[in-house]
UniProtKB/TrEMBL annotation:
Keywords: Hydrolase, Membrane, Metalloprotease, Protease, Transmembrane, Transmembrane helix. It comes from the Bacteria. Coiled coil: none annotated. It comes from Micromonospora inaquosa. This is CPBP family intramembrane metalloprotease domain-containing protein. The chain crosses the membrane at residues 30-49, 70-90, 102-123, 135-154, 160-180, 192-210, 235-255. One of its GO terms (biological process) is proteolysis. Pfam families: Rce1-like. The keyword Hydrolase applies. The keyword Transmembrane applies. One of its GO terms (molecular function) is endopeptidase activity. InterPro entries: Rce1/LyrA-like_dom. Residues 105-196 form the CAAX prenyl protease 2/Lysostaphin resistance protein A-like domain.
Length: 278
């Protein structure tokens, strides 16, 4: 029941914020304001509903160190995507044709702030965290990563291959990031840094949602397995490889820090064996 209440509360903010952003489409500054406001309200609503349903302090969104953690995650996300673009440029055709659109980048900043915060609250803050309590870290990572990837099939230029890539490079990686840090700020920053680098700076397609107009005017072509095709670089084998590496690193850190939750065994599995008297 608490899972449902938490999902509904955060999903409601996500829906309303998304509709508001659609309503002001074309106005970069209003998009930025509404996107940031959606992110802030989502955090407040998540904190409220968790406190009401679980009767505890919301330590995963502790204010102390929040800015530093978001920045750390954003740097990881930006660095990861920049590395992917560099590798694609060596093998395929990625050209920078000059400056792009500052207003476009401003709008994308708001869009990605809302998307990163609401998706991390829904998928890592609620879904992964609650499922992990019942199934353990590894199974929760697989299950919630799969759901996260399937969600991207709703995008305009989605494909089965693109969704599979998202499962591995984002669903698994972001859940592993939460498991390693046990806070939501780092995965939020990572998610935001990745998405804003893609759309707001390098101006490529983000998860099959169409070409972005960011700070750089760019063109890209080449083999689909390298560039990701219509789905964008998130459908590239380079991105999958980068996501696997970071997932393994985060899970190693989670293990080292003692953050791995074991699978909950059924009562029948843990009953002590009865001694036989001869």
């Amino acid at each position: 029941m608490r899972l449902l209440k938490q999902l509904v509360a955060v999903a409601a903010v996500t829906f309303v914020g998304g509709q508001a952003i659609v309503a002001v489409k074309g106005n970069a500054w209003l998009t930025l304001i509404i996107g940031v406001l959606t992110a802030v309200v989502a955090v407040l609503v998540y904190g409220w509903v968790v406190r009401r349903t679980e009767h505890r302090a919301v330590t995963e969104l502790a204010r102390a160190g929040a800015v530093a953690r978001i920045a750390r995650g954003a740097l990881i996300g930006f660095g990861m995507f920049a590395a992917v673009i560099i590798n694609i440029a060596f093998v395929a055709d990625y050209d920078v044709n000059g400056l792009g659109s500052v207003s476009g980048a401003v709008a994308i900043l708001g869009l990605m702030a809302a998307a990163a915060v609401t998706e991390e609250l829904l998928f890592r803050g609620v879904l992964f965290r609650v499922v992990e309590e019942r199934t353990g870290t590894w199974l929760a990572l697989v299950l919630t990563g799969g759901v996260f990837g399937l969600m991207h099939l709703l995008n305009a230029d989605a494909s089965i291959w693109g969704a599979i890539c998202i499962v591995v490079e984002a669903g698994f990686m972001l859940a592993a990031c939460y498991a390693a840090t046990r806070n939501l700020w780092v995965p939020i920053g990572l998610h935001f840094g990745w998405n804003f680098a893609a759309g707001g700076i390098f101006s490529v397609v983000v998860s099959g949602t169409g070409q972005s107009e960011g700070l750089l005017a760019t063109t890209m072509s080449g083999p689909t397995m390298v560039t990701g095709g219509d789905f964008g670089p998130e459908g590239s084998l380079y991105t999958v490889a980068a996501g696997v590496v970071l997932t393994l690193v985060f899970m190693w850190l989670a293990h080292r820090r003692g953050h791995i939750v074991p699978r909950r065994r059924r009562a029948i599995d843990v009953q002590p064996a009865t001694a036989t008297v001869s």
